[in-house]
Amino acid sequence: MNARAVPLSWLCDMDGVLVHGGNAVPGAARFVRALADAGRSFLVLTNNSLYTPRDLAARLSASGLDIPVGSLWTSALATARFLDTQRPGGTAFVIGEAGLTTALHDAGYVLTDKDPDYVVLGETHSYSFSAITKAIRLVSAGARFIATNPDPVGPSAEGILPATGSVAALIKHATGIDPYFVGKPNPLMMREGLNVLGAHSETAVMVGDRMDTDIVSGIEAGLETILVLSGVTAEADVERFPFRPTRVVGSVADLVGDLEALASR
Taking Cα atoms as reference points, which of 182, 191, 107, 100 lies closest to residue 149? Predict the structure, then answer.
């Protein structure tokens, strides 16, 4: 990439790209500043549905990354926007945390367990057996089944935890009903991100650390894609997939030079 070819709009994953284990990836703060200095629009996309954008901005700030609330796009926000386009002012039974319930409230949804239009499953700090049982009964009774993302596990200090994808599989197995996953790798989340930025896929790039979510959804949405090796994917893993990113770099620190060259012109 040279200064002339630097994309106008940047979509970027969060975990493994900007932060890792609660700490900023080396060079991430400089990368974020360079985007702003170069006049490039920027949106952080994350499958994390636990937190509101305000919560995430505070957490990122604590790690040294200054990212405005409006530059954060979560699977919870994407889910709320999707449901608003499908059934405005609907009702939902929700398993999730404040990030998801707040997004649905803001979209005009009523949260209820009485004959809801949807069962919406997201991440939570502790999955309740009674809530999962309620979800199974509601889906069996005809509620439409939505999940924020298909990620099967999440991290914790003690090791991996079951996440949305695993619990969705449990509900699917019990009901025979497939969930509709809104978050990555669904390219819908990319397209919604582009709409938030007012951007076009032909002049945008997706930066991510996972081939099976970030890169494939970027490709399917028609974006240039950049895989960073600062997260879960090793360079040797790339050849195992039937698709390839446009570029592979060590981390976002390797992208700073092109942006700073553009800003200095």
Answer: 182
* Helix (H), strand (E) at residue 208: strand 204-208
Angle, CA of 214, 216 and 217, to the nearest 5°:
65
Distance CA 92, CA 139 (A): 11
* Residue listed under structure tokens 């446009």: 246
pLDDT digits (tens, 9 = 90+) for 35-72: 999 999 999 999 999 999 999 999 999 999 999 999 99
Spatial distance between the Cα atoms of 73 and 50, rounded to a whole number of angstroms: 12
Catalytic residues, by residue number, are 13, 15
Angle at 159 between CA 15 and CA 228, to 5 degrees: 25
CA distance linking residue 139 with residue 16, whole number of Å: 34
Mean pLDDT, the chain, as a whole number?
93
pTM comes to 0.91
In whole angstroms, give the CA distance from residue 140 to residue 133: 11
**Dihedral Cα 256, 258, 264, 265, nearest 10 deg:** -160
Query: Could you identify the residue written with the tokens 């009485």?
Result: 114
Domains of the chain (ranges plus CATH)?
3-47+184-263 (3.40.50.1000), 76-181 (3.40.50.1000)
Q: Specify the 3-state DSSP secondary structure of 80.
A: helix
**Cα(176)–Cα(170) distance, integer angstroms:** 10
